[in-house]
Amino acid sequence: MRWARVGSTITELAEPFGITLTGTKKHVSVLEAAELVTTEKVGRERRCSLGPRPLDDVEAWVGMYRRMLDERLDRFGELLERTKGAPR
């Protein structure tokens, strides 16, 4: 993520993905609201860089739900194994 270190314009971010500038601006505004990205107006351009909120918080939140889902799927798998071949 080169742009994370040095910052990139909205146009530079949109180019590799074939996304419109409007679409990219919407994505960036969501990331900015979550404090994952900051933007700064430099002349006619808007430069984006990583924001003050570390991704560690997001990773911890996702990890918590991943563990919960894994536990539920494990219990479901155990239930299926116990009921396999049982008459209906």
Give the structure's gist in a few sentences.
The chain has 88 residues and is α+β, with helices and mostly antiparallel strands. Helices cover 59% and strands 16% of the residues.
Structure overview:
With about 90 residues, this protein is α+β, with helices and mostly antiparallel strands. The chain has two domains: about 1-50, Winged helix-like DNA-binding domain superfamily/Winged helix DNA-binding domain (Arc Repressor Mutant, subunit A, Orthogonal Bundle); about 55-88. The chain contains four helices and three strands. It starts with a helix and ends in a 5-residue tail after the last helix.
SSE order:
HEHHEEH
Span between termini: 54 Å
> Which fold name corresponds to the CATH topology of the largest domain?
Arc Repressor Mutant, subunit A
Tally of DSSP helical segments: 4
The stretches of 5 or more residues where confidence is low (pLDDT under 50) are none
Mean pLDDT: 86
List keywords for this structure.
88 residues, alpha+beta, Arc Repressor Mutant, subunit A, three-stranded antiparallel sheet, 4 helices, 3 strands, 59% helix
Tell me the layout of helices and strands.
Blueprint: H1 2-6, E1 8-9, H2 10-14, H3 21-33, E2 37-42, E3 45-50, H4 55-83
Antiparallel strand pairs: 1-3, 2-3
